[in-house]
């Protein structure tokens, strides 16, 4: 046997073990730096601290709508935002403007390890508990009704929001730039590892969607170079009816920057038809 082949074969089990032990530390990229607050953009807001389901202290911003808009029953809609795997709340502030201008209150929160939330290394289990904490804060802390809360998630946040939507009862779930599971992305990056069997933090959006009872809007850009457009199609297939697909343009999870008017028009039409 050639030396290089022997080295490859003998090291393969260690590569598998290394992936199994450490992959969860490369999925989420916690950052502590907030580069600005809503006030820097001239937005009113309330700074909020609340507990996750396991009592980890989390931080968020509650932003009131700046205009009248769609009503869900007799209530103003509230958008609960689930960010992707990197960046603190400041990164997403500009993207909240179209929601506020369309009559939605917005609640943004940071997963554990991000921004002003307490530092715990974020894992799939941990951020699920964070999502439950955010939901509980809105329902009990702000006395909101489940039927007025919209879940909106980007990228990896789709795996968190879809799980939370299956556990809770929001008015609707909106996913942008999502993927079926971490397995799909990992198998593209390291196709020579059996990631299907050794991935523990899966963020399995497709599986969770099968349990989600509320209306689902799946949005994905045909120009997305990070998460293939076909993955968005797979999420649509996995979702239960009523469901809608929205084709976007531009970079990954940037519809609120590239085409805010078209995106919000589609969202309001979707909610008017299925959630109002």
Description:
With 276 residues, the protein is α/β, with parallel strands linked by helices. It is 39% helix and 17% strand. It has helices spanning 3-22, 89-101, 124-141, 157-167, 182-189, 195-198, 205-209, 229-238, 255-258, 260-274, and strands at residues 46-51, 57-63, 78-82, 105-109, 149-154, 172-176, 216-221, 243-248. An eight-stranded mixed β-sheet has the order 1-2-4-3-5-6-7-8, with helices on both faces. Helix 2 links the parallel strand 3 (78-82) and strand 4.
**Assembly level:** single chain
Question: Which class best fits the helix and strand makeup?
Answer: alpha/beta
Rg (C-alpha, Å):
19 Å
**In which range does the helix fraction lie?**
25-40%
Kindly state the number of beta strands: 8
Low-confidence stretches: none
Number of helices: 10
User: Which geometry do the CA atoms define?
Assistant: globular
Mean pLDDT: 91
For the biggest β-sheet, the strand order reads 1-2-4-3-5-6-7-8
The sequence of SSEs as H and E is HEEEHEHEHEHHHEHEHH
Strand content: 15-25%
* C-alpha end-to-end distance: 68 Å
Q: What does the largest sheet look like?
A: 8 strands, mixed
């Amino acid at each position: 046997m050639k030396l290089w082949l022997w080295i490859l074969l003998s090291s393969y089990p260690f590569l598998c073990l290394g992936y199994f032990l450490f992959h969860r530390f490369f999925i989420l990229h916690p950052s502590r730096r907030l580069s600005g607050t809503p006030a820097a953009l001239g937005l009113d807001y309330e700074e909020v601290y609340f507990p996750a389901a396991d009592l980890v202290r989390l931080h968020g911003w509650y932003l009131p709508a700046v205009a009248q808009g769609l009503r869900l029953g007799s209530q103003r809609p509230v958008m609960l935002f689930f960010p992707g795997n990197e960046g603190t709340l400041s990164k997403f502030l500009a993207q909240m403007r179209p929601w506020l201008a369309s009559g939605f209150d917005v609640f943004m929160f940071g997963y554990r390890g991000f921004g002003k939330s307490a530092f715990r290394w974020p894992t799939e289990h941990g951020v699920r508990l964070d999502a439950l904490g955010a939901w509980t804060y809105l329902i009990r802390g702000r006395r909101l009704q489940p039927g007025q809360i919209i879940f909106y998630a980007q990228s990896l946040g789709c795996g968190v929001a879809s799980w939370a939507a299956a556990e809770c009862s929001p008015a609707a779930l909106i996913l942008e730039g999502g993927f079926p599971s971490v397995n799909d992305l990992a198998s593209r990056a390291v196709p020579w590892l059996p990631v299907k069997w050794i991935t523990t933090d899966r963020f399995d959006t497709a599986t969770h969607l099968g349990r989600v009872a509320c209306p689902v809007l799946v949005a994905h850009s045909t120009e997305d170079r990070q998460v293939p457009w076909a993955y968005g199609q797979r999420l649509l297939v996995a979702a239960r009816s009523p469901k809608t697909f929205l084709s976007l343009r531009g970079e990954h999870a940037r519809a609120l920057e590239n085409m805010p008017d078209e995106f919000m028009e589609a969202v309001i039409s979707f909610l008017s038809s299925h959630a109002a």
